[in-house]
Specification:
Blueprint (H helix, E strand, L loop, with lengths): L1 H18 L14 H28 L4 H20 L10 H11 L8 H20 L1 H4 L25 H15 L5 H18 L2 H19 L2 H25 L5 H16 L11 H4 L1 H7 L10 H29 L4 H17 L15 H29 L5 H8 L1
Length: 412
Amino acid sequence: MLVLLWAYSIASPVVETVLNDRAHYIEGKTSNVALAATLDDLGAIVVPVVAVATTLFVGLFWRVTAPSLVLAIAPGLVLAGNELAHGRSPTLGLLLTAAAGALLVSVRVKVPDLVLLGYLGALVAAASVVAFFLIPSKVLISGGTNTFDKSLTGAPLLAGIFTHSNTFGMFLTLALPFVFLARRWPVRLVLLAAIAWAMVLSSSRTALVGAGVVLVALMLARILPRSAFAPVAVVGFAASVFAVFWLPFTEKDPEAYTYRGSIWIFDRQQLGDHWVFGLGAHWFADNYARLKAVLSSAASHAHNVALTTLMQGGAVVLTAWGVLLVVAFFATLRRPSARERGVGVAFLLGFVVMGATETPFGLVGWGPLSASALIPLFVLAGQGWIEREEDEFARALATVPLTRAALRGRRR
């Protein structure tokens, strides 16, 4: 199920990369590839159907951990319900995150399973680097022209299978922590090298800062005892969350942070007094032409996860996501495995840090970053309740008197 959600997330970008040439790519341009749109529409039906059927089946024949399920589906359901406050009916795309969360919780995806994200992220990175040398027009922004002002290496910006190098960089940063769940260090080294190479070629400063935070967190988790790592992690998490809110709501310079200041100022003005319910889940899409005229084609989101969420769903939706994030963080700190604890905290810190100047995932639908951002978030948040329930079931089973046949089997 994890692979299903991951594949659905990148299916459309892969098709667009194969069928499109980026020589005349324009940032913000919508896809005109019919197959990509068809895959999106098909997945929007298949994922909820599979999620509902799986959840019902597991609930009938085994058990679904209720707190984890509620926590995972709440943000998507609140966003969909919030549309009613704007006089609009919820669309199916608004329920995709809730469906994905329900699916992951019902099949009990575990933290060790997230190593798949490390392998798959490295695979995308390696394929993108190969394409950089063999078929650059497929994976470079603007076919490799007019982008050197943003490049950190002097080379054209590598976007891989995504529409922008920032998206590609964030995808890699979010996959990076799970490389360290691989058991053998040579494997970890190869995966890390592939991701690092592609990330440098992306020249995404936001992603590189996030990757730096990830690596520092992993190092501290390794060298510090648990009693010292926990308070350091809490301080880092609190500082990151503070930055997410402080930057966009206090910035007054339109040119700050590569002109993100102008986006933040404009979006704050548009939000006005609509803090509780926001402007609607589809506000950015409905007003894209205006945003492009006033700001730039890069203004299809607020370039800050908190402000984007407030614009689309207000404080009610931001609270639902905030609760999920906080629960995931403290549940991760309580994990008995030092490796899993370090990987989980590193992911969450990288996620929040990048959220200060970018939007690491889309609230509507199941976008290209959803697999690497939301799958770990749902798993980390719900894992504590699931494991406690399994432990209680195991203890209860141990107290059940064994039959004579079972005793004979145990002696064997």
